[in-house]
Amino acid sequence: MKTKVRTLQIAFTYIGTIVGAGFATGQEILQFFTQYGRWAMLTILVSTMLFMWLGTKMMIIAQRIKAESYEDFNRHLFGDYAGSLISLFTLIILIGVNSIMLAGAGAIFEEHLGLHYQTGLLLTIVGSYFLLRRGISGIMQINSTVVPLMLTLSIIIVINTLKIPEAGHFLWLDTERSPIRAWLSPILYTAFNLGMAQAVLVPLARHTKDVRALKWGGILGGAGIGFMLLTAHFAMSSQMPGILQFEIPMGSIAFQLGSIVQIVYLLLISLEIFSTFVADIYGVTVQLKQHLAIAPKLITPGVMIICYALSQFGFSSLLSLFYPIFGGLSIVWVYKLILSPMTPPPKNKNDSKDSGHIYLHAKPVTRTTRK
C-alpha cells in the first residue's frame, strides 16, 4: 500500500510540474499541437511516450547517482564544466519563468477576484514560503490535491465537448502548417518541459528509495500528461479556428459551461501557478545551497524576493530572447539523456569498493566543500 501511495504522489508531482500555467490555459497545447490539425493526435502520442520514457529514466538515473540537484544531474550528463554552465542558464530561465508566473497570479487576483495586483503576488509568495518549509513532502501534497482536480475538470470538458456537432474535428481538421514542424513540435515540447522539470524531479528521485514507485510513478505521470494533452486538444479542436483569437483558449471553453465551472477553472489555474512556483523555487533553492554558505531558510525568501522584483518589470521580453536558446539546449539535453546508460546500482554495501566499475557511466556526484 505504501508503494502505491508513493507511486501516485510521484505521478501527480510529475504531472503538476509539467502542467504549469501555459498548459492549464491551453496556450501551449494550441501552439505545439492543436494548430497542426489532424497531425496533432499522433504528435501528442509521440510526446506522451517521450514523457513516460525519458521522465522515468531521468528519475531513476538521478536516484542511482545520488544527485542532490539538477546541477548534479547535468554534471553527470555533460561533465563538470559544461554541466555547471547549463545549470546556470537553467537557473536564469527558472527565475525568469517564475517571475512571469507570479505576475500571472497577480493578474488573476486583479481581473477575476477584484483584489489588488500586489495582493495576489504577496499571497502567492507567503503561501509558497510556508509550504516550502515542509520540503519535498509539501510539494507532493499540493500536487496530490491539484492534479486530481485538473484531471476531473478535463473529463468534464470532454464529456461536454462530445455533445456538440464539431466534436469530431480533431480527426480531420485541416491545416496549412508544415508537417515537418508538426513532427518537430512534440520533441521540442517534451525537451523544453523536461529541461525545466528536472529542477523538481531530480531531488524528488533522490528522496525516493523505492525504485518501483519511482518507475511506475514516472510511467503513470507521463501517461497522465498525455491524457490531459489529448483532452485539451479534443476540446479546442472543436472550436477551431475561432479559438486561436483567445489568450486563454481553455478558459473560453470552461466559461461556456457555466459560472461554477468558470470559478473552478480559475481556482485551478491559480493553484497550478502556485504549485509550479513552489516546485521551481524548491529546485532553485536546492541548487543554490550547494554553492552558497547560507541556510536554505534564507535562500528561499531571497529567491522569492528576486522573482517578486522581476515581476514588476518587463522581464518577459528578455525571457523571450532566452527561450529559443534554452529550447536548443533542451534538445541537446534530451539527446544526452537518451544516450546515458541505465547503470545498475550496487548490489550491497561491499560493492562500494568496486564502485569505479559499477558506476562507469553513472558515478555518484561528489563535491568539495568551499572554504
TrEMBL record:
The chain crosses the membrane at residues 12-33, 39-60, 81-109, 115-132, 144-162, 182-204, 216-235, 255-282, 321-339. Keywords: Membrane, Transmembrane, Transmembrane helix. This is Membrane protein. InterPro entries: YkvI-like. The keyword Membrane applies. PANTHER family: CONSERVED MEMBRANE PROTEIN (PTHR37814), MEMBRANE PROTEIN (PTHR37814:SF1).
